[in-house]
Amino acid sequence: MKRLAIPRAKKRLGQNFLIDDYVVAQIIQLIKPQHTDHIIEIGPGTGALTDLLVRTKAAITAIEVDRDLARSLVEHYADIPNFELHNSDIMNFDLEILRERSTAWKIIGNLPYNIATPLIMNLVTLRSLWSEMIFMLQKEVALRLTAKAGARSYGRLSIMAQRQAHISYKFEVSAASFCPQPKVQSAVVRFQPINNTKNPEIDVYFEKIVRLAFATRRKTLTNSLKSLIPSDVIKQAEIDPKSRAEDLTITEYERLALKTLEALGH
Ligand code: SAM
Asked: Which of 10, 65, 89, 186 is the best mutation target for the ligand 1 pocket, counting ligand atoms within 8 Å of the beta carbon and taking the most?
């Protein structure tokens, strides 16, 4: 199949098209598409990944916001029965409508960097809809997503995402693999859902505590959390009240959320 031509890129849509066949093959190798798979591709662009995905006969649902690209893709894959395209903004697209077809979607994308963080925050909460996600991201975001407690990149994004998924840093991709070249380095990460049930009451406190703690990350937890939690509750959760936001593991934040829930009389 002849490749679609690279159009003039629209910066506001984060259009940096992959032109490196080796990187394309590496990403496809990670997702290992099977003919029985249901795959969502976010931002297919000129079809660098899509061309290989459709060949595997997996059912491909692509979501592309750019009207011109969407039109070209529909024409390009007109004879491919296992390909469907939604000309939609992924940030407004109701992924729940795809649940009746599968609850083990593989989601793949060379993501537009401007929406990657809020998109991932949302996708991890929908973890009962997918079995795996493979994304190309800005390297700095990939580092934050995979950072562990104590690391420089560890923050709210690391904690909220790693609470829902195992996330692994796969490989880096240089700017030269794209047209036009982005100003930043890129990296590919893999997400696998953590399938344990969560208590929604604890979730509310978990989120509040993490948000408050990182809002003033240089302060001790006693100070940063004082509007929500008395320091003896921090001690009851067996956490040093003098520690700071980046010192606590996800399990410690969960313990703190549970003790807060108990202390606040629910
Ligand atoms: N997958 C192609 C590749 O690897 O060459 C294109 C990747 S490019 C980094 C990001 C793609 O996402 C573009 O095609 C862009 O038009 C599309 N896009 C940007 N914002 C989007 C949104 N909100 N919803 C859906 N697609 C979007």
From this structure: 65
Residue 40's domain comprises 11-193
Q: Is residue 48 part of a domain?
A: yes
Measure the CA–CA gap between 266 and 258, rounded to whole angstroms.
Answer: 10
Tell me: do 60 and 120 sit in the same domain. Answer: yes
C-beta of residue 85 within 8 angstroms of C-beta of residue 62:
yes
Tens of pLDDT, residue by residue over 42-81, are 999 999 999 999 999 999 999 999 999 999 999 999 999 9
In this prediction, residue 115 carries a pLDDT of 96
160 and 207 co-located in one domain: no
Q: Tell which atom from ligand 1 comes closest to the C-alpha of 13.
A: 19
The span from the CA of 140 to the CA of 128, in Å, is: 27
Residue ending a domain, choose from 193, 228, 246 = 193
pTM here is: 0.95
CA of 225 to the centre of ligand 1 (A): 39
CA of 147 to the centre of ligand 1 (A): 26
Residue 41 has pLDDT above 70, yes or no: yes
Last residue of one domain, picked from the residues 142, 165, 193: 193
Atom 8, ligand 1: residue with shortest CA distance: 15
Cα 111 to middle of ligand 1, angstroms: 6
Q: Which residues contact 32 (CB under 8 A, 6 or more apart)?
A: none
Nearest residue (by CA) to ligand 1, atom 6, is 45
pLDDT tens for 99-143 read 999 999 999 999 999 999 999 999 999 999 999 999 999 999 999
Same domain, 72 and 172: yes
Query: What is the rounded distance in angstroms from the CA atom of residue 189 to the CA atom of residue 109?
Result: 10
H or E, element range at 166: strand 165-173
